[in-house]
Amino acid sequence: MKVYLETYGCQMNEYDTEIVKAVLLEADYELTDSTEDAEILLLNTCSVREHANRKVFGRVHSLHHQRNGIRARIGILGCMATNFRQDLLHGSNLPIDFIAGPDSYKRLPQLIEKSLREGEKFYDVTLSEFETYSDVYPVREKGVNAWIAVMRGCDNFCTFCVVPYTRGRERSRAPENIAAEVKRLAGERFRQVTLLGQNVNSYNYEGVDFTHLLEKVSEVDGIERIRFTSPHPKDFPRRLLHVMAENPKVCKQIHLPLQAGSNRILDLMNRTYTREEFMHLVDEIRAHYADMVLTTDIIVGFPTENDVDFAGTISVMESVQFDSAFIFKYSERPKTIAQRKFPDDIPEEVKTERIVRLNELQREHSLLKNRAHIGRIHEVLIEDETTKKSADDFQGRNDGNKIVIFPKGEYRTGQFINVKIESVTPHVLKGNAVNVLENR
Ligand code: 5AD
Ligand code: SF4
Q1: Superfamily of domain 2-124
Q2: What pTM was computed for the model?
Q3: pLDDT digits over 305-321, tens only?
C-alpha cells in the first residue's frame, strides 16, 4: 500500500513527518512522491495562523479531484487535526477520511487500516503527557543537517498561540536517548544537528537542563555544528550564553522571539518579560559574544495595539537591530485566551501598513548587518551543490546561519570551507572560496 505525504508549517512538523515515515515503513507501507500513485494521502498540517489552514483546505479540494478512480483515503495530521476534530469530519463537506493528532502517529497503521476497512470518518487526537517518540528513528533525507526534537508541547500559553492546545503539555526526552541518536547521525555523516522544541529552555529531564543537554550533544565526534530553536526570552539561562560563547560546536546564532515591543501588549500576550528585560538580555548576549546573530518573530496588529504600542516595537527593533525577522499579522486562533478575551479589533489595512513598515525597517537592518561582513572570511558548511538562482554556484551557511553563495569549484556537500565575503544582499552573503578546512 502506497502513502503520499505533504508537510506544512514549522521545522517540528518537518521532523514529525520523518517520524511518520518511519512508523509507516515499519508497518510495510511504501512511500511515494506522486499523489496519483498513492492509496493514502496524508497532510501534516499547521494551524498557527489562519492562512496556513486555508492553504490546506484548498489542497484537500484539489486532491479530492485527483481521487477519481483510485479512491485514495485522505488523512489530516498535525496541528489542524487537534483543532478541528469533529468540525472537519462532520461540520464541513471536505473529503477527509480521518484525522490523527501529533501524539497519535504510532497508531497510524491501525488508523489507516480502520479507515480502509470501515469507511466511516473518525479522529484520533488524544494528546499525551508522555509521548516523545524516543523509540522511533526518523527517516531523514540524506544531507548535512538533522532535526531532532528534544521536547514536545508547550506550557506557556502566550495568549495568541494555539500550540499549547494543538500539541499539548510540555515533555522532555531523555538526554541519553538524544545523545545516542546524535551518535547514530554522526555515523550516517550528518555534520549538523538542530535541537527542536517549542521552548527549549524549559527542557528538563530529571534535573538535566538544556545547557547540560547541549554540552552532552557537543561531545559527539563527527557532529561539528549544533543549532537549536527556539528559546523563550523570559528564562534564558546565563550559563547557556557562556557555553555558547565557549563551545566551538555551538553555533553563534539565537532565534529570540520578541513578538512586541510595547509592555502593555507584551502583558496582554502573557509573554512575562518587558521590553527593557528583552533589551537587557540582548546586551548580555552581546557581552558574551559580540557578533551573535540574532533573529526574531514579531506580531503586528495584536488586539488593541495602538500607534504608541507600534512605535514601541519599532524602537526595540532599532535598538537591537536583528539580523533578520519573521513578521506576522495577528491571526485570531480558536480556543486561545486572546480569542476568548480580546476582540480582533485592528483593521486589516492597519495590520498591512504595519507589517509593510516593519518589513522595510528589517530589510535596512539586515542589509546593514550583512554589510559588516564584507571583507571577512567565514567558515561555511556546504549544504547544496546548487543554488536556486544559478547552476554555477554552491550554497552553504556560516556559523550564524546566514546563507553564503560562492562559485562552484571542486567541492562537495558536507565540506567546510573558508569563504571571503565580497558582496551582500539583505538575505545572503556572496564571496569566493579561499581554502578547504581539511580537519573538519
Ligand atoms: N497570529 C500571528 N502570528 C502568530 N504566531 C503564533 N501565533 C500567532 C497568531 N495567532 C507567530 C509568533 C510565533 C511564530 C512561530 O508564529 O510570532 O513566534
Ligand atoms: Fe506558542 Fe508561546 Fe509556546 Fe511559543 S512559547 S509555542 S508562542 S505558547
Answers
A1: Methylthiotransferase, N-terminal domain (3.40.50.12160)
A2: 0.95
A3: 999 999 999 999 999 99
